[in-house]
Design a protein that fits this description.
heterodimer, A: about 375 residues, mainly alpha, 3-stranded antiparallel sheet, 14 helices, 3 strands, B: about 325 residues, alpha/beta, Rossmann fold, Alpha-Beta Plaits, 2 domains, 6-stranded mixed sheet, 5-stranded antiparallel sheet, 10 helices
Chain lengths: ~375, ~325
């Protein structure tokens, strides 16, 4: 009977979404996104859109066709289309599932059937996820065909997008279901979920800024002693020269140290003072940013990791070797253009912080959040009088 | 008779101290049509929802179809039409019936044929492929009743089944109810339409402010209130009334507010003939004479009016800290 009821609820959910037209609109948009995906390309002469090639250095000598499509999938297909635009459409389509379930006149016939409340609620929740799973699968399958046909690479790894983006959506949808259950209003649930999603973005961005600042300060702290040592060496040499020349040295004999200067080295080399101040400032900044990074990381620990979850796809789908040509080209272009791409060590350090976060940590803590939220939902749903 | 519903001391206290049910005892036998009456807010729908696990009772003892109230498995043998139902408008009536059939655990082959049979029964066969959104209220009500019968239930609970249904539709529904009874099913009706209930119910109960006031067959409930009524053209004086009463030793007069009327608690017309003679001899002109039994409406109004505040709509709200 469980299978029969579950199947009936899934069919009903499909009919509901079908009636709203949004299912087909989103599916159509997914296919449109795949067409755009397929219309872009790279060849030995340059970058192409449909039948037009834009000749340039960005060609297959720096990036293989397969790597180009994977990069395309990872840089806009998943982060922009699937996890932003398509997710927004999916939320609009599915936000009503729980408020509709608990609305007067709808819930009574459901509860009067031989089905437990927790199973009823969770199955309804899963119907929302199924909608999104179908949409992600269609986009991934389309991208898989594009990559296979256009680049000759049949990359089954693209289908990792289905569980990963589904996991991402499930965090947000769990919150939406919770709000829908509490408010019984689709609009309220949708707006509050958007606010929650924005909050996650702010926390993630905030943590990123804190970590960046902390690592930047840490880098300055690491470089500081060496800079000071260099300036001290320079000042020592200068003092020796002055001594050889018989000229007065501040702090020795009758020659006083200038006010506020701690030693002869700094009196001789004012840059040493700047280096020392720089180190002291880096130490203070490190303390401050470490505190804030801990606060934001603590906050983030309990919240679902939407960005990192999506980032898991990048970890697993493309290797550094595949994009090394492109990376080299970008660096070369920066040098040619006189641009300053900053200290590469800083990027590496920040990246290392995120890479240190295991898949288990990212998904585990996020699923704990989702599980707790759904647990509370089940408790409310099971105990509420309708 | 085997009890299909047998509950005792059912209580439901909502947050905000609304005491919807205040110790309800109810027994419904197998194969009967049972009607539950009561003013708005009496607790009728709450009682039904408690039986169907839609609402959790504060206190409830007893059984539904032999299982403890709250046991979900027994609901596969119960059909239910809620009062203000809101079935999905995107479904056709055929899809709705099949969906609820599946939810009740009816096998696919059975539910497909059952859906066709029931659509025919409720007169919705021609509309079976149209979406519910295009139906009138009466049509939705018919489909709702069919939905309640999809699982071949032993007990059918219908909350205001004739709400929004035209007179022809009501007649059809009455016929369906009678048919269900003939098939040996138990039908539990919640309704405001007392005349409808009176026509089909074997037993009724009257509920006021969360308490069961009366329960029994209509004959049982009207016992002692039926009798022969004599109506005069003018008011009958107290002296005449005393003379008449003296003539009828052992037959009680039933109290009536009409001064031109005399009512005696007997079903034997011969017993009251001397009264007519006496009235005539006293110069009283007789306008009408006949047997009278109170209608269900009379019983209902009486039960409601006897209860303090019974005519006021809504469940009783307790004062803070008070327990009724």
């Amino acid at each position: 009977m469980i299978l029969m009821q579950t199947k009936a609820m899934f069919i009903d959910a499909y009919r509901e979404l079908n009636a709203k037209k949004l299912f087909w609109i989103t599916l159509g948009l997914n296919l449109f996104a795949v067409i755009i995906f397929a219309s872009l390309g790279i060849n030995e002469r340059g970058f192409s859109i449909l039948f037009w090639t834009f000749e340039g250095r960005f060609n297959t000598s720096v990036l293989s066709e397969a790597a180009f499509y994977k990069l395309e999938f990872l840089t806009w297909g998943v982060p922009w289309w699937l996890s932003k635009l398509a997710t927004t459409l999916a939320l609009i389509s599915t936000a009503s599932i729980i408020p509709d379930l608990v609305s007067g006149g709808t819930i009574e016939p459901q509860l009067s059937k031989p089905i437990g409340r927790v199973r009823l609620f969770l199955t309804k929740y899963l119907t929302g996820l199924l909608f999104v799973a179908v949409q992600i699968f269609v986009f991934s399958f389309g991208s898989f065909l594009v990559l296979g046909i256009r680049a000759g690479s049949w990359e089954f790894g693209l289908f990792l997008a289905v569980p990963i983006v589904l996991a991402f959506f499930s965090y947000i949808f769990a919150f939406c279901a919770f709000m829908g259950l509490l408010t019984r209003s689709t609009i309220a649930a949708l707006l509050l979920t958007m606010l929650f999603w924005f909050t996650l973005f702010v926390v993630h961005t905030g943590e990123g800024i804190m970590i960046f600042q902390r690592e930047e300060a840490a880098l300055r702290m690491e470089d500081g002693p060496e800079k000071i040592a260099a300036q001290e060496r320079f000042a020592t040499r200068r003092i020796e020269q002055l001594r050889e020349q018989g000229r007065p040295i501040p702090g020795e004999g009758d020659e006083p140290l200038p006010e506020g200067i701690p030693d002869a080295l700094q009196a001789i080399n004012p840059t040493l003072g700047s280096a020392r101040e720089e180190l002291a400032s880096a130490e203070t900044a490190y303390e401050t940013w470490s505190t804030w990074a801990r606060v934001t990381s603590g906050l983030k620990f309990v919240l679902p990791k939407t960005q990192e979850t999506i980032g898991l796809l990048e970890r697993n789908l493309i290797s550094e070797d595949e994009v090394s040509g492109l990376t080299d080209m970008i660096e070369q272009m920066n040098q040619e253009g006189g641009g300053n791409s900053g200290d590469p060590r800083l990027g590496e350090r920040v990246e290392a912080v995120y890479d240190a976060r295991s898949i288990g940590w990212i998904l585990g803590t996020s699923f704990v959040f989702e599980g707790v939220l759904l647990g509370v939902c089940c408790l409310i749903f099971a105990r509420r009088d309708f | 008779m085997e009890a299909v519903i047998d509950v005792r001391g059912v209580e439901k206290m909502y947050k905000g101290r609304v005491h919807a049910l205040r110790g309800v005892d109810l027994k419904v036998g197998s194969g009967e049509i049972f009607g539950l009456l009561g003013p708005n807010g009496a607790g009728k729908s709450t009682l039904v929802k408690v039986l169907l696990t839609v609402i959790r009772a504060t206190k409830c003892e007893g059984s539904l179809l032999g299982a403890k109230v709250g046991d979900k498995s027994v609901l596969s043998q119960v059909g239910y039409l809620p009062e203000h139902h809101n079935f999905p408008k995107y479904l056709t009536s055929r899809q709705l019936l099949r969906h609820f059939g599946a939810m009740a655990g009816v096998d696919r082959s059975v539910r497909n044929s059952k859906a066709e049979e029931l659509l025919e029964l409720v007169g919705m066969k021609d509309w079976s492929d149209s979406k519910l959104g295009s139906y009138s209220k009466g049509m939705r009500q018919r489909v709702g009743i069919a939905q309640a019968l999809m699982n071949d239930p032993k007990l059918v609970i219908l909350d205001e089944p004739t709400d929004g249904v035209d007179p022809i539709g009501r007649k059809d529904i009455r016929e369906i109810l009678t048919r269900l009874k003939d098939e040996g099913r138990t039908v539990f009706l919640n309704s405001h339409l007392l005349s409808e209930l009176e026509m089909v119910c074997d037993r009724v109960a009257i509920m006021v402010h969360g308490l069961m006031r009366q329960q029994g067959t209509i004959e049982e409930l009207t016992d002692g209130q039926s009798g022969y009524a004599i109506r005069a053209t003018t008011a009958i004086g107290s002296d005449v009334r005393s003379t008449v009463q003296a003539k009828l030793q052992g037959v009680d007069a039933i109290e009536t507010k009409d001064p031109t009327e005399l009512v005696f608690a007997t079903s034997d017309a011969e017993v009251v003939q001397p009264v007519i003679d006496t009235l005539r001899s006293q110069g009283v002109s007789i306008k009408a004479f006949g047997f009278r039994r109170p209608s269900l409406e009379d019983l209902f109004v009486k039960a409601v009016q006897e209860h303090p505040g019974g005519a006021t709509p809504g469940a009783q709200r307790n004062k803070k800290g008070a327990r009724s």
